[in-house]
Design a protein that fits this description.
The protein is mostly helical. It has helices at about 1-15, 15-35, 40-75, 75-80, 85-115, 120-135, 135-150, 150-170, 180-185, 190-205, 210-235.
């Protein structure tokens, strides 16, 4: 499984589309959003965490696009004759997604510190990066479920819709304080809102709330089950 993991990580990091869409785009959006208005250091810190989370979600979902392409070329058929179980295949792909989200997270954090002048303690920088990295796993599993269950073209469209919809409703682009009351309530149960809360809590100097961890864990189990079931269903058609 680890050889499979190394192969998939190399394939992803060599993809120009991943570098542009998963790393460069969140950085450009962050710098654009935070430099159009006044010099609000608090907003720049919050937006940095939100856009790092957005980049992580996009990179995690992108893993599903590679899976759909593998189905089209017959790579999944070859994996089925190996000793790896469905859970090991899904876990290998999930670990690939976890590795490839790191550049997106770190790029936005570097832009926040070097360009926008965000100042945090060393433990806060490390804590934000670590928690966003670990918290991205549910989104990797969502992307995998889409990749195993949908065609390559449909997977790309679905992942993009998931990324944009969850980013907006979860408050990654705009503070949820701007939302109407009913949408703030909905946002609190979205995985993206609680995902970003992991980082903003550390930026504010305290540990994430248990509610955020509980909501993310529930989504982790749901998306993980979805990915495994989708992979098993491909056995009937691949």
């Amino acid at each position: 499984m680890f050889a499979y993991l190394r192969l998939e990580v190399r394939r992803t990091l060599r993809d120009a589309g991943f570098v542009i869409g998963g790393i460069a785009m969140p950085v450009m959006m962050y710098l654009l959003f935070t430099n159009l208005g006044g010099d609000d250091g608090g907003y720049r810190t919050q937006a940095m965490v939100g856009m790092a989370a957005y980049g992580a979600v996009g990179s995690a979902l992108n893993t599903g696009g590679g899976v759909a392409e593998d189905r089209a070329i017959g790579w999944l058929r070859q994996l089925r004759v190996t000793p790896m179980t469905p859970r090991q295949v899904v876990l290998g792909r999930a670990l690939t997604g976890s590795v490839t989200v790191l550049p997106a997270i770190l790029a936005v954090l570097v832009a926040g510190g070097l360009v926008n002048g965000v100042r945090l303690a060393p433990w806060q920088w490390a804590g934000i990066a670590l928690l966003l990295w670990l918290g991205s796993i549910p989104f990797t599993l969502l992307g995998l479920g889409n990749g195993y269950g949908l065609t390559a073209q449909t997977t790309g469209v679905t992942n993009m819709a998931c990324n944009l919809g969850l980013a907006v409703v979860g408050g990654l682009w705009f503070p949820i304080s701007l939302f109407p009351a009913w949408l703030r309530t909905v946002s609190a149960y979205t995985p993206t809102n609680r995902f970003a809360e992991l980082g903003t809590s550390v930026a504010d100097g305290h540990a994430p709330a248990l509610g955020a961890v509980a909501v993310l864990t529930a989504w982790l189990l749901a998306f993980g089950s979805y990915a495994v079931m989708a992979y098993r269903r491909t056995g009937r058609t691949v």
